[in-house]
Amino acid sequence: KKEIVVATADPLVVALDSQCQKRWNKRLYRRPTVIKIVRPRRSAAASGAWIVVGCENGDVVVLDGQGSVIRAAKIEGEPVCIAGFDEPQVGQGVLLATASGQVKLFKVGE
Questions:
Q1: Of the candidates 50, 36, 110, which has an alpha carbon nearest to the alpha carbon of residue 79?
Q2: Which phi and psi angles does 44 have, rounded to 5°?
Q3: Phi, then psi, of 43 in degrees rounded to 5
Q4: What's the pTM value of the predicted model, to 2 decimals?
Q5: Strand 12-16 vs strand 103-107: parallel, antiparallel, or unpaired?
Q6: Mean pLDDT across the chain, nearest whole number?
Q7: d(C-alpha 91, C-alpha 16), whole Å
Q8: Largest alpha-carbon pair distance within the chain?
Q9: Tell me: the pLDDT tens digits for 45-56?
Q10: SS (H, E, C) 16-83
Q11: Cα separation, 46 vs 53, whole angstroms
């Protein structure tokens, strides 16, 4: 089933169904600057997609497919870029880069 997930400056993460009806929303403490959807391949994480959100203060929040926080971390600086990866040698995760030049790897699905 297709969904739309967006991060707003309010600061909210909102999930809409294919008819653009709100499914859920999650208020964050700071404005989101990057967002990436990752679908873990591990059976233990079969509950659906993980939504990885980087916020202006360096907070990194991982939401499950229902909008609940399942992980949180911190990165130095404001995230300006996020990319997903799935490599057999390394696993699955996201890379975040900040305006101050830090690059940090976050594994998902474990």
A1: 36
A2: -65, -25
A3: -65, -30
A4: 0.88
A5: unpaired
A6: 89
A7: 29
A8: 40
A9: 456 789 999 999
A10: ECCCCCEEEEEECCCCEEEEEEECCCCHHHCCCCEEEEEECCCEEEEECCCCCEEEEEECCCCEEEEE
A11: 20
Q: How far apart are CA 12 and CA 95, in angstroms?
A: 22
| Bridge partners, residue 12, by sequence | 8, 27
Tell me the pLDDT tens digit for each residue of 62-93: 999 899 999 999 999 999 999 999 888 878 88
Among 23, 1, 2, 85, residue whose Cα is nearest residue 12: 23
25 contacts 32 by C-beta, under 8 angstroms: no
Residue 41 is encoded by which pair of tokens? 């391949």
Block residue for tokens 């929303």: 25
Q: Which of 96, 95, 97, 93 is nearest to 108 (CA)?
A: 93
Tokens of 3: 């969904």
81 within 8 A of 97, measured Cβ to Cβ: yes
